């Protein structure tokens, strides 16, 4: 490619449009440029369960932004990427502005890298917590506690899992929970005939992600995580946990090193969990 042709591409106008399946290869290229571990399947899944925008220049994807609506009150945002050669041109702001308009007045949550904090703060987002990313090959042979209240979920458990998820997150997201359950291995804690916690492990990135993990206590969350990890020996495992629950040191002891963190932010009102239920690990940093 000649230098003149490169300049023609850089100077070409950009077009903002709805994310479609045909944009997946370009979006994958963007995430690879950022050294994010998304696979093509991960992009396709995210687009299927959510909504997205893409910026194109001369037929090339130069930016993306995705969001997932959870009822009439909340949405989460993520996968907001602008290629390095186009950064500094206001493209990130353009994508974010359009995303916020598309979420139709909902309270919006996201998890920001250090590089994105300034942009999000300018748009009215405030920090409320920290998500710690732990990952690595699971070389420790994990033995789950022998408990008869932790079992594999069945199709008939889905409605109860969705209700528990709403209590844990404060958000209505039955479609997301159903989609995650459809592609993952689901375990539940059952007490007195009711679902009192759940955890999903599924293929993602370099291996597997354990999350969401929702429970009524940190102890229950650890039991669910152990039960999932017992099936993933020698696999590459990632867990994105909320720092406030203090699982970091315990995950380190299992050989899952902390490799990064993100700042949990909200524009508007943060959702509130109902009762003792809480979310301990995320499906990923975009979905929440």
Automatic annotation (TrEMBL):
Pfam family, one: Acetyltransf_18
Native species: Mesorhizobium escarrei
Chain segments annotated as coiled-coil in the UniProt record: none
Name of the protein in its database record: Histone acetyltransferase HPA2 and related acetyltransferases
PANTHER family on file: BLL4206 PROTEIN, SLL0310 PROTEIN
Lineage of producing organism: Bacteria, Pseudomonadati, Pseudomonadota, Alphaproteobacteria, Hyphomicrobiales
Family annotation (InterPro entries): Acyl/Acetyltrans_Enzymes, Acyl_CoA_acyltransferase, GNAT_dom, Thiosulphate_STrfase_CS, YitH/HolE_GNAT
Residues of the N-acetyltransferase domain: 14-147
Protein origin, superkingdom: Bacteria
């Amino acid at each position: 490619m000649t230098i003149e042709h490169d300049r023609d591409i850089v100077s070409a106008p950009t077009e903002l449009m709805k994310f479609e399946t045909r944009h997946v290869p370009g979006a994958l290229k963007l995430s690879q440029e950022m050294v994010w571990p998304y696979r093509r399947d991960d992009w396709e899944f995210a687009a299927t369960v959510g909504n997205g925008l893409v910026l194109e220049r001369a037929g090339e994807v130069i930016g993306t932004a995705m969001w997932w609506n959870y009822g009439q009150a909340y949405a989460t945002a993520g996968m907001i990427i602008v290629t390095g050669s186009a950064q500094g041109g206001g493209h990130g702001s353009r994508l974010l502005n359009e995303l916020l308009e598309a979420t139709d007045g909902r309270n919006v949550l996201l998890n920001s890298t250090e590089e994105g904090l300034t942009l999000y703060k300018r748009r009215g987002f405030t920090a409320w917590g920290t998500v710690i990313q732990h990952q690595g090959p699971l070389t420790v042979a994990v033995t789950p506690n022998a408990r008869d209240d932790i079992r594999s979920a069945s199709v008939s458990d889905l409605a109860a899992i969705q209700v528990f998820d709403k209590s844990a997150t404060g958000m209505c997201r039955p479609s997301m929970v159903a989609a995650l359950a459809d592609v993952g291995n689901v375990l539940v804690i059952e007490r007195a005939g009711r679902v009192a916690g759940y955890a999903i492990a599924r293929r993602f990135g370099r291996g597997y992600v354990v999350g969401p993990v929702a429970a009524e206590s940190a102890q229950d969350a650890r039991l669910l995580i152990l039960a999932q990890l017992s099936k993933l020996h020698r696999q590459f495992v990632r867990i994105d946990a909320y720092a406030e629950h203090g699982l970091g040191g315990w995950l380190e002891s299992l050989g899952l090193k902390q490799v990064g963190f993100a700042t949990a932010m909200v524009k508007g009102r943060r959702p509130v969990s109902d009762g003792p239920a809480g979310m301990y690990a995320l499906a990923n940093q975009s979905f929440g």
